[in-house]
Design a protein that fits this description.
homodimer, Thiol Ester Dehydrase, Chain A, alpha+beta, 5 helices, 155 residues
């Protein structure tokens, strides 16, 4: 039986999500990770607003966490220990989402992992720019985010 | 005894917050409203992350809701009925917050209420640009947001 090379990192991430009160309240599941893209899912019922669609704050939180998780997994895979903070984010809300939430986070176009991994190794502080989306069931996106994450070495 | 001119609107807003699952989970209280600035509070314990400070997603959600609430209150005060959506937002996370959360939302600098109220009356669709912050106990801000909200007339 093939072993998932990401299993240990994903187990740690799931435990982290369960342990953080605001994230536990979101009822998040890790929907997939292929090394480049992390997908997080959450049920609409937990995130519904007054108009029957997903609350904008929930979309931002899920995308922010997906980006945070992706950066954290890449650091773990590189054997680096660091605290990861979101530094800034820009979000566009495009269409209402009347279905369960799924956020996908990957490296932003034209960005690389070197400013995170190589610079963290050299200077103890690195950063990565992440693009995340929440897709609509019929195609297109409910929301899109670009965010910058900073990692500060802890050991 | 003087009557709070905002009491009816604030009661409706509080009921709205209680009725929306993701917002009820945040344990939000209306901390104040003077007609120009809406302040929302939430306990750190409900929003703490792995580092003992407030989760970035919670800061964004609270600021997003404060802006949404401010726009909603101004529409109600003007006697207008509309659905309010957040259209886009940009957030800077400046410092970690190790205390209870309080977000304050007001009109963005150089913005006015005319594009919301007058244009909604004339064309059935208005918008407002809101600035929100989460303050640090010792001065300065933990996070700052600028967001654009769109209101679409419902009757």
């Amino acid at each position: 039986m093939p072993t998932d090379p990401h299993a240990a990192g994903l187990d740690a991430l799931a435990a982290y999500f369960r342990g953080m009160p605001p994230v536990a309240a979101m009822d998040i599941a890790i929907a997939g990770f292929d090394g480049d893209c992390l997908r997080l899912a959450a049920p609409l019922a937990r995130h519904v607003n007054d108009k029957g669609c997903a609350f904008g704050g929930s979309l931002v939180s899920l995308m922010t966490l997906a980006g945070w998780g992706l950066v954290t997994l890449r650091l773990q895979a590189a054997g680096l220990r660091a605290d990861v903070f979101v530094a800034d984010s820009a979000v566009r809300f495009r269409k209402p989402l009347y279905a369960d939430l799924e956020a996908a986070a990957r490296l932003a176009p034209d960005a690389g992992w070197e400013p995170l991994l190589d610079v963290l190794r050299a200077r103890g502080r690195g950063e990565a720019t992440i693009a995340a989306t929440v897709a609509l069931p019929g195609g297109g996106d409910a929301a899109r985010m670009t965010a910058r994450y900073v990692a500060i070495a802890t050991g």
